[in-house]
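hi! just following up on the protien thing from before. the input was this:
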Amino acid sequence: MTNTKQFLSVVAASILGGTATLFGYKTFIEQPNLQSFNQNQPAYFTKFEYDTAKSVVPEGLNFIHASDIVRPSVVHIRTYYENTTASSQGTPFDEMLKEFYGDRMPQDRNHRGGGAPQEASGSGVILSNDGYIATNNHVIDKADKIEVVLNDKRSYIAKLIGTDPTTDLALLKIEEKGLPFVKYGSSDNLRVGEWVLAVGNPFNLNSTVTAGIVSAKGRNINILRDKDNMAIESFIQTDAVVNPGNSGGALVNLRGELIGINTAIASPTGSYTGYSFAVPVTLVEKVMEDLLKHGQVQRALLGISIIDLNAAMAKEKGIKDFVHGIYVGGVNVGSAAAAAGLKEGDVITHVNGFPVNSASELQEIVARNRPGDKVKIKYTRGEKVNEVDAILKNKSGNTDVVKREDNAVKSILGAEFIAPSKKDLAKLKIDGGAMVQQIGAGKMREAGVPNGFIITSIDKIKIDSPIQAQELLSKDSKEGHLIEGYTLNGEHRFYGIGW
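and the predicted 3d structure came back as:
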């Protein structure tokens, strides 16, 4: 009996304890079931006040600061084209873009064609508080009127200061003061994997900011290849979203500093599909200064033909201990490279202390300089490492500043002149002259002069350099000019150039 009473007491105590525990859980712990987000979230979020701009994010990943700095300094560019034959035919750049983009042309190039006056759009970057603006050459190419619309909707008609098709850059000017502007950064210090922002006006959507990382540097995509063999392609490649209308806009780092001008996208459709390309700011800064001071770019040349070097080629050429560098395929007579002692077969490894591993890298570094500037070239010849200083020259083979008038003369002639290569001089058994290149509409074409023709005399005056040929042909003459020379096939010919 006693055991039975004890057993019942334990059972009763357990039931009482369980009841008390259940009551306490229901009363103090268990919450009502959430029946829907619509019933509960509004009450929760309207009471929750928090400034997300003050959120703590990993260092270097907050894009707000850079966006606030840059957006007021990026402008919308609208271009207008009258119904003319020139505008309806398009330009070589149009054909190049068609191949690059595929069947669909980007919005900022769809301005050609007959009918009513056409319009196009792109972007630009304010560089100074008094209204100088950088953009792409293809954004404003052959425009009859250029309108600049600021971030605050103010509108201006811009003046074209100068263009450089070889880098696809142009400089504009609007008459205003106290403007916000983007400060230059450094594309040299830019590293692959670094966060960047692209700011522009894609599809006429003003002040659009996209983010991505630097995917590669020194990228050559052959978009400028049909110019005059002087194009500089050493693009910054990013995966920041860039679309038609972004052309000419800013690529900036997270400090809000300009590191490039957005120029192209790799796309079969004309819209973004993965990668975009920007002209590095080190080149932008130099080109803008030249256009501001001289109206055209002062292009410096080393005067060599260059070939990207790889392991297979190194083996073929007998280059031992190959690491990196650019193979010198030839040296032009009278060039900076020839004066410095460079020879065919040398391998250039550094320019001004910068390692070069591709033709585009070498071209960009040299292009930052002007004729007359000295660059330090480190190269290997056989097993020996050498270092020399080279005084860079212009296309005419000297260090003179190229004036705006020189371009006017070249425009009339429709051609340019360069120094013939040592190989061509030896082949033709001549000791000097001026080679005619890039013949377009003008007096040279009218006379039937072929591309590559080497002028040895003008009006019976012996020609020793390109600059001499240009000076003589620029002189007005009622009788015109008689030029003598050789084709690359060795044919001796004469041509009459009217003026």
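Residues 183 and 257 are 5 Å apart (CA to CA).
The chain has four domains: 1-49, 65-290, 304-391, 404-497.
cheers
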